[in-house]
Amino acid sequence: MCGIVGYLGRREAVPIVIEGLKRLEYRGYDSAGVALFSDGAIDVVKRVGKVSTLEEALRARGLKATIGIGHTRWATHGAPSEINAHPHLDCRSDIAVIHNGVLENYSSLKKRLLENGHRFVSETDTEVVAHLIEGLYTTGTSLDQAVRLALQQVRGTYGLVVMSRREPDRLIAARRGSPLVLGYADDGYFIASDASALIQHTRKVTYLEDGELAIISRNGIITKTLDDVEVRKAVEEVTFELEQIERGGYDHFMLKEIHEQPETIRNAMRGRLLVEQGEVKLGGLDHVRKKFVQARRIILLGCGTSWHAGLAGEYMLEQIAKIPTEVEYASEFRYRNPVITPDDVVFAISQSGETADTLAALREAKARGATVLGIVNVVGSTIARETEGGVYIHAGPEIGVASTKAFTAQLTVLAMVTLMVARWRNVVGVDQKLLARELASLPEKVARVLSRYDLIKRIAEEFKDGRNFLYLGRGANFPVALEGALKLKEISYIHAEGYPAAEMKHGPIALIDEHMPVVFIVPKDAIYEKVISNIEEVRARRGRIIAIANEDDDQIHKLAEFVIPVPRTYGFFGPIVNVVPLQLLAYSIAVARGTNVDQPRNLAKSVTVE
Ligand code: M6R
Question: Model-level pTM?
């Protein structure tokens, strides 16, 4: 949700900022811009569209500078246009601001600033910050003081960076609600929305906390609270490798990430699943063991794909660990005055660890006394830091906007949490060793599904012009149906709905005719025959059936037009395997339709606004 990069040092700023913006493009990609300080003035260049378009414009201008800031935008206030692209300037073009977040009181601030004679050019909320600073940046006031005073007036969220013509050797960054990371190298200093924009230059970083401000100069970085108290921050080491954030020969990040799943599932289990002993060790939960033993229930919070992971986790936790579990849309949770008590254990599930709705929901749960934990991918992210403990899923950087490997790693972690909670609560009848072996077998099963890619591409060719899809599954595979439909919608722009298979007859069956593809997830489990009846109902109405079915299922070939075989998997862990063909199907359809798979329209990787 908007990417920010800044550099100040001895090197040329343009390539550093542009390279950083390209790495952050997954956060927003409707327009991009830079501000560079050179020859006593701030030059701003903006373009609608991709960072590469901006790069061409900069090449044509041949600008040189050793201090620069850049922004890639996901529009909130004002349509994607050059005028609304960041950076935004004050009336005299002395101050440039880039911002990620939403300023809730911007219209009242703008009204007042207009009355005081400020001239606005954009429809954005961000521009008020430039004008507020302009008004407060009087003689004798430093830029950081003016920024601090301006931020006292705004309500909302921000990660922002400010540059001034009057203090050309400084950048001021501040954070409330939107992530910012500072980078330290021998020849300069960096600021960015996330570490992927920096690791090419340095691995030494510090994360700015909410309510903190950084003064970046040629002599170093000083961090303070917004109340002007200096904060000494530990420098941390970024551990992921550059190859992990590159495409590595694949056409798209999404395809690479789908293919990484055998490895990422293995990584999620590494050192935690002790197969021989049938045990799970999750160090980040040990200290709250008693809470789990005494818990009245578990609540799983998330949005989008992470919410789907929660739904599949609910089946595991209730059916195996026998603990009441609720799954909540984080975006709804905090507005419905939820009944939460100190006996509740809450997990916030988030790939990015920055989703504004999930963060707000976990704060709500915390304020009401629950034990709040995280299942998060991005190490050091806000959700990871604001929870009392939790489990990293260790999927590595996920760049494709459509989440894939994070989903299967989230489910793997939820499965391990389930086994551990079952043991802690002495649940009888759980064969821990058997389930541990089942978990250990998942990477190989997922690899087997990946080998069906050519078949899936052929199916995609057949259905690429479809206008609607239905995805149906029952039990633990109902969330898989939802996830399959979400993937297709996100990247191919085909309307798709996921439903519990038996619910079809209560309404969606009216949609079925010879043009409607219906994807059934139909493993040979206890409700197999029931799903077969649902398939018959679709057949009777001439719907076109694609079945995700077990490799040894002979009957299904007589009923479905296309069958994608998947290995048999223990029921509640089935979603980890059964979702993979649906990821590949959505991907292949999107490629066949020629959409931008990694950066689908209107979306952004981490949704840091409400
Ligand atoms: O980073 P998070 O897991 O918190 O993100 C939640 C959703 O925004 C995310 O899963 C979204 O639905 C993806 N685009 C799904 O592919």
Answer: 0.82
